[in-house]
Amino acid sequence: RHCLLAALWLAAATAGAQNPPLSADHFPAAAVNFLGSELPAMEAAIAERDRDYFEEAMGRMLEFSSNWGFKSQGNPALSRYPMCTEAVSDFLVVGMCRIMTTADACEPALASRFDANLRKCRELASRP
Fold it and tell me: I want to staple 31 with a disulfide (CB 3.0 to 4.6 A). Which of 17, 20, 84, 118 is the partner?
């Protein structure tokens, strides 16, 4: 997991430097919308054992995180929403672990931590 996450952090940090950060108040809803579109596609990819989805989804995740500035620390106001940033950061690893169950990144608590973060992020996004 550490190698995969390190690659994601590095790519996002270098890709995110040129975009201005968006308003942090809208981040939970944006994260939920992003994951709401990605998670069904990921489920289909898992069912089909389609690893290509993950490469393409990584690009979308990096673009999303870059636009919001949470990987490059370009939007420090997002520190209020670690449950959302972690859910966006972890969803691909969780999905990959369902295909490659023996990978080093597949620690037992990862999926339950992702589910808890996603639930908390959805709760935040649903608040007026």
Answer: 84
For the chain, the distance separating the N- and C-terminal CA atoms, rounded to the nearest angstrom, is: 35
Least Cα distance to 98 among 38, 34, 48 occurs for: 48
Contact predicate 78/27, CB 8 Å: yes
**Contact criterion met (CB below 8 Å) for 17 and 72:** yes
Low-confidence ranges of the chain (pLDDT < 70): 1-22, 71-73
Confidence (pTM) = 0.78
Q: How many residues does the chain have?
A: 128
pLDDT recorded at residue 22: 64
Q: How far apart are CA 102 and CA 83, in angstroms?
A: 26
Helix, strand or coil for residue 16? Answer: helix
Q: Rounded to 5 degrees, what angle do the CA atoms 103, 108, 111 make?
A: 95
The answer to whether 31 touches 88, Cβ cutoff 8 Å, is yes
The kind and range of the H/E element at 23 are none
Distance CA 20, CA 41 (A): 28
C-alpha 102 chain-centroid distance: 21
